[in-house]
Amino acid sequence: MLAVRNLTKLFGTFAACNGIDLDIQPGEIHALLGENGAGKSTLVKMLFGVLAPTSGQISWRGEAVSIASPSAARKLGIGMVFQHFSLFEALTVAENIALSLDGTIPLARVAERAAELSRAYGLPLDPKAHVADLSVGERQRIEIVRALLQNPQLIILDEPTSVLTPQEADRLFETLFKLRAEGRSVLYISHRLEEVQRICDRATVLRHGKVTGACDPKKETAASLARMMVGADVPHVSAAGTNTKGDVLLEARHLDVPARTPFAVSLKDVSLKVHAGEVLAIAGVAGNGQGELFDALSGEYAVADPNAVLIRQRPVGQQGITARRLLGAGFVPEERHGHAAVTGMSLSDNLVLARNQSDRKAFLGGGVLGVIKYVAVRLASRRISEAMDVRKSGDDPTAGSLSGGNLQKYIVGRELDRQPAVLIVNQPTWGVDAGAASRIRQALVDLAKSGSAVLVISQDLDEIFEVATEVAVISEGRLSDIYPAIALSREKIGLLMGGLQGQPEALTEAAHAH
Amino acid sequence: MGIIEAILLTVVTAATPLVLAAIGELVTERAGVLNLGVEGMMIMGAVLAFAATQATGSPYVGILAGIGGGALFSLLFGFLTLTLVANQVATGLALTILGLGISGQIGEAYVGMSGTKLPPIAIPGLSEIPYLGPLLFKQDLIFYISIALVIGVNWFLFRSRAGLKIRAIGDNHASAHALGIGVIRTRYLAVLFGGACAGLAGAQLSLVYTPQWVENMSAGRGWIALALVVFASWRPWRVLAGGYLFGAVSISQLHAQALGLGIPSQFLSALPYIATVVVLVLISHNRRMTLINTPASLGKPFVPDR
């Protein structure tokens, strides 16, 4: 259906894609594997007409084509779900969908059509909601429905399942199988090897802009695929060593937070305790109060009752982020760009922004003037980069120039470098490649072993089972009981995610029988 | 005609150019382009409308000349900021200064000449309604156009596909480009529309408000129109309401002086800007309000990465 020969894209002298060959047959789900920065995004952008190739050839159904624009790609029958969402925050869900339909349906009817189709594909959406009010997971559903609505012959999906529950992912896979049965093709970009092995018919692996393997993923092992991707074996997250449980370092007591906007989730009677030496993972589908919980625990928004949040047994509900940091807590918010880091500023400047109070002595001089000690900051920044294996161009580049995985490693490293007694991380490896994800998870596990309390909010069950000692599930702003990680299976977590509360006996019994 | 009626009539005349210039700038800004050159485009419209009316004797030709002048001037802005990607704020300011200068040059020959006033058009039946009739249905063509534009723009932005595309571009031009919407082309059209409206507003000044040419006769109305767009939080109906509010304030300035009320006229002339600041504070107080109301890519240059 689609054949790519010797496709090359140069940015200056840097070859983002270097002589790529790719063949997609009708009716197959084709995986495109590779770490961040391997050239996957550049390749699919060329296929979708967003970028123009420097050289090489694309043929569509046997005929050489030049895809000049996304609308040209759509006319050929190529649909795309972007990794960085191409949604309009100020517009409603229906309006966002209408924009990508080529004017065949009257605007007034798009809302009901969208609602119908989103139900049919098992991706529930409220067409009248503003995108600004939706979570990452809900936004991705819009992207998927939007691409499917165009009735494409080839649909390109970039990391589509990273924010879905296993059940939702299964439903998506069913949709993909349906598409395949209709003779359509899917180009499926993912880091999740077992997912690729489960649903994909063939795989093309990229590394440093070149094809390093074309195979049937079902005949490969996860390890052999990972080797093609990374060029070396991906280190397993090791849970070796013992976790010594200590005092309660982070606690929430009957935390109630009303919804800040009409579309936000309110937190209802959330209680949790994280002991020294524990990693408590909070599982849940996007938009169930994770962001609100992070805001309340980190102090981005103070809560009414000072005793509702305790860090090292001190009531901090009314305190701000800096005060909580000074007590030895560290925070990594979900959004890398613009929230955890200022993309236009250098890494060392970002370091000062985060730690100018908690490390005042080390980074600032001149008394009240607060003059930045650049040498000390640069050294600390270099230390963090080395500790977390951050790959970057130059000594101190802007945060935005790093790939997602490398920036995330830096941001997590920035907190770890302080040896925080309490670390709260929201979606630590969202959109991060396998190598970087394993590095970050290992760091979280190691931090807990060294006696800190770690709270990880994640939608990725693989991640949760790799790092957690304890697991709780958040659903509609309510937190389940906390279970030891070994007593839970994927299915149980899936049930809890769906809001099955108040039946701990049934759950633990099932876990014992398991 | 009673005194109240006379005052209200002057309010309508004072509000019309504000509404016109603001509704044009609203469309431009909804597409993500900040054109601070409204004052310059308006004054160009005023002088060309006056000149064309003098040359042909027909104020309707004058209206067309005013629209054309404003549009042409905005095209210069579009070329500089959209094609050459110059800074929008600096270019807009330069456009205003340039417009004031060129219009003074063109208008030198017309200073002191008495102009031709655009005749009112009475709408049969409706204009007989007591009080309301003469106020709303015995007006000149430009007034009717201003009302029709507000209704039309509101429908266009929120009900039509093309309007949806404009809002999408203003919110996130990179995503709009990725969807295959012609960002630069659409922005050119939005800038042209803004220029044409500003030019028409200028024509109203020299053909209706004071039918003569006076240098700098726009007298800061372009700036009030810019403030009005923010005051209206980029909503057409609020532009209409705000335009009449600001128009009333500027008229009350004159009457307050005439009646010897104790309100300093400086305070009254500052009132539109104070109101705008209050609205800005209210909007930015709430993140959601900001996200939904403000064109997020306003003033940001767009360069497709091909």
UniProtKB/TrEMBL annotation, chain B:
Mode of membrane association: Multi-pass membrane protein
Keywords annotated in UniProt: Cell membrane, Membrane, Transmembrane, Transmembrane helix
Localization annotation: Cell membrane
Keyword Isomerase: no
Presence of keyword Ligase: no
Residues annotated as transmembrane: 31-51, 63-86, 141-158, 188-207, 265-283
InterPro entries named in the record: ABC_transp_permease (IPR001851)
Protein name per the record: ABC transporter permease
